[in-house]
Amino acid sequence: MEIRAIGCEPLSLKRVFIKDGHTLKVYRDTGGYVSLKKALGMSQDEIIKQVKDSALRGRGGAGFPTGMKWSFVPRDSPKPKYIVCNADESEPGSFKDRYLMEYDPHALIEGMIIAGYTLGSNTGYIYTRGEYKYLIDIMDVAIAEAREAGILGRNILGSDLSFDIHTHTGAGAYICGEETALLSSLEGYRGHPRMKPPFPAVEGLYASPTIVNNVETFTSIPQIIEMGGIAWRDLGTEKSGGTKLWSISGHVKKPGVYELPMGYADMEKFIMEDCGGMLRDDKKLKAVIPGGSSVYIMNAGQIIGKNVALDYEGLVAAGSMLGTGGMMVMDETVDVVETTRNLSEFYKHESCGWCTPCREGTDWIVKIFNRIDAGGGRPEDARLLLDICDNIEGKSFCPLGDAAAWPVQSAIKQFPDDFRKWLVDKTTGNGVISPNV
Amino acid sequence: MAAATPTSYTDRVIYSEDVAEFSPAVIDEMKMHVAKYPPERSRSALIPLLMLVQRERGWIDNPGVNFLAKFLDLEITDVWETATFYSMLNMRPVGRHHLQICKTLSCKIMGEPDITDHICSKLGIKPGETTPDGKFTVSLVECLGSCGTAPMMQIGFDYHEDLTTEKVDKILDSLN
C-alpha cells in the first residue's frame, strides 16, 4: 500500500516519512508543539479567525466549515466545555485517520489542545472505533509522553491553560461516527443520534458545549496556526482550503493514502497515473465511488475526459461528493447491482433502528436485492427501490438514511444496463426497467 | 457487525444472578477508565468496561453484566441496553480465535469471497459458527477501515491485511 503526497509537500503525512515521528522527541525536533506555543500567545478570536480564513472544512465527511463550528460555542457559558475527536473511522472506503494516528499522534494532541485553549475547555476525549485498539494504545503512549513533558495537564507550557485528553473506545457501530450518536455512546448509552438543534456546540457531551471534529480536521489545526489561515487555504482553492487525504482502494495498482492539494486536477489522472492505473491492464474503468460509500457512485463517463477537480465543488459538479475522500475504484468485472446490494447490507446492518424510515427502509432494500440476486428480479424493481429511497431520503432522523439511499439511487441512474440484466420481464424474456427511470 | 453475535436480549438462554469476580489488577484498570470522566458521569465508562469484561471472560455473560451494574451503580437493564447495541460485544461465547472477515465493498471486490470459502472449508464451519473444539469462530463483519490492503480480517485485535489463501494458511497454522 502506498502512502505519499502528490502535487504538494507532505503536510498531514509529513511524519510518515520521518523515523520515529510518532515519538514526542522527534515530533518536537520536527516543529511539533511550536504552533501550540504560538497559539497560546494569540487571542481566542484571532485563532478562530485564522481557522475561518483557512477555509478548512470538516474532514469527517460532512464538510462543515470548522471555523464556523467553533464560533458557535458559547465561550462565556458557565458549563464545562468539551473537545471530542471523532476517530470512529468506519465509512467503507476510508482508512486515512488510521495512518494519522499511527504516525503522527502528537499532531492530533496538539490540534486538540489548541481547540481547548480557543474554546475554553479543560477536557478532551478521543473516541476511537473499538477495532482500532492498536491506535488507542499508540494514543495512550503519546498522551502519557505529553503529560510527562507538561504539554498536557495543568499550566501547559507554563501558561494558564489546563487541558487533558483521554482515550475512549467504541465497540463496533458505524452510526457512532455521526456526532450526536457518538456523544450518546460516549455517555455510555446506545449509539442513537440526537435531535438537532440544539447542536453539540451548544449542548453536546453531558449537555455542555462540545466540539466534535474528525482526526484529520484536528491535525490540520497546528498547520493552520503555523502557516496562517490564508497561506494554508492557498495550498488548495478559495473555497476548499489546504490539502486533503484520500484513501484509494479497489481495482488500482497502487491503493493507499494520498495527500493532494484541494482542487487537484484531475480525477482521471489521479486514478490512471498517480494510483498506477487499473489493477488489470486489460480491464477498463467502470465505476468510482469517490468519497466513501455514502456518496453517489460515478460511471466512467463522468470521469474520463471530464477534468474533474478533486475538491468539494469539483466532485459536486461531476455528480457526486467529496465525503471522506474514500475512493473506491471498480473495473468492468464488477456488477453494480451486486456492489449496491453489498453496500445496502452495510446500511441495513448499521442502521441504529431509532427511526422508522431508515430501520424499515434499509431492511426492505436488502430484501428486494436478495430477491433480485436469487433470480426473481422484476422490471418494476428499479421503481420500487427508488420509491423506498424516496421514503428514506430527507425523512430519517440522521444522515445515515440519506447515506443508505444515495448509493441505490445513483446506481440505478448511472448503471441502468446492470439493472436490466437482472430485471427481466418474464413474458418477453427481455431485461427492462419499467417505468423508465 | 458479526453474524455470530445476535444482538437480541431474548436470544440469550443462560440466566444467572451470579456476579463475576475480577482480579485487583483488572479492578484497577476499570477504575482508571472511570476516572477519565466527571464523577457523576461514570456511566461513560460503561463501553470501555464492557470491552474489559469481554477481554477477561471471552463474551458478555450475565455475571459480567451483573458485576458492571454493581460497579457503576446502574440497573442491570441499563447495562444490557448498551451492551446489545454494539457488534463487537459478543452476546454468545466465541472461539479462542475470533476470525472476523471484512465483507464490505472493497474487500468484497478484492477477493473476500475466496478467502471466506477457503477459511470455512479449511475449518469445516460456516460464517457465524465455532469449531467443535472451541478454537475458532468465523464471522463476516462490516468495514474495518482496511480497504487499501483488502482483503483483510481481524483476529482478536490483530489486523491481517493483503490476504491470500497461502497467507491465510500460514496465519491459521501459527495460532494455537
Structure description:
The complex is a heterodimer of chains A (437) and B (176). Chain A is built from 17 helices and twelve strands. By secondary structure, chain A is of the alpha/beta class. Chain A has three domains: 219 residues, NADH-ubiquinone oxidoreductase 51kDa subunit (Rossmann fold); 89 residues, Ubiquitin-like (UB roll); 87 residues, Up-down Bundle (de novo design (two linked rop proteins)). Chain A has a six-stranded mixed β-sheet with strand order 1-7-6-12-9-10, with helices on one face. In chain A, helix 7 links the parallel strand 3 and strand 4. Chain B has two domains: 75 residues, Arc Repressor Mutant, subunit A (Orthogonal Bundle), CATH 1.10.10; 78 residues, Glutaredoxin, CATH 3.40.30.10. Chain B contains seven helices and four strands. In chain B, strands 2-1-3-4 form a four-stranded mixed β-sheet, covered by helices on one side. Chains A and B meet through strand 4, strand 6, strand 12 and helix 13 of A and helix 2 and helix 5 of B.
The global form of chain A is globular
Measured between the Cα atoms of the first and last residue of chain B, the distance is: 25 Å
What is the chain-wise order of helices and strands of chain B? Answer: HHHHEHHEEEH
CATH superfamily of the largest domain in chain B: Glutaredoxin
Low-confidence stretches of chain A: none
Q: Which word captures the global form of chain B?
A: elongated
Task: Specify the number of helices of chain A.
Answer: 17
Please indicate the count of domains of chain B.
2
Biggest sheet: strand arrangement of chain A: 1-7-6-12-9-10
Most extensive interface: pair and counts?
Answer: A-B, 55 and 40 residues
**How many DSSP helices of chain B?**
7
Q: CATH homologous superfamily of the largest domain in chain A, by name? A: NADH-ubiquinone oxidoreductase 51kDa subunit
CATH top level of the largest domain in chain B is: Alpha Beta
Rounded average pLDDT of chain A: 96
Structural class of chain B: alpha+beta
Q: Identify the quaternary structure here.
A: heterodimer
| CATH architecture field of the largest domain in chain B | 3-Layer(aba) Sandwich
In CATH, the topology of the largest domain in chain A is named Rossmann fold
Q: Return the domain count of chain A.
A: 3
Strand order of the largest sheet of chain B: 2-1-3-4
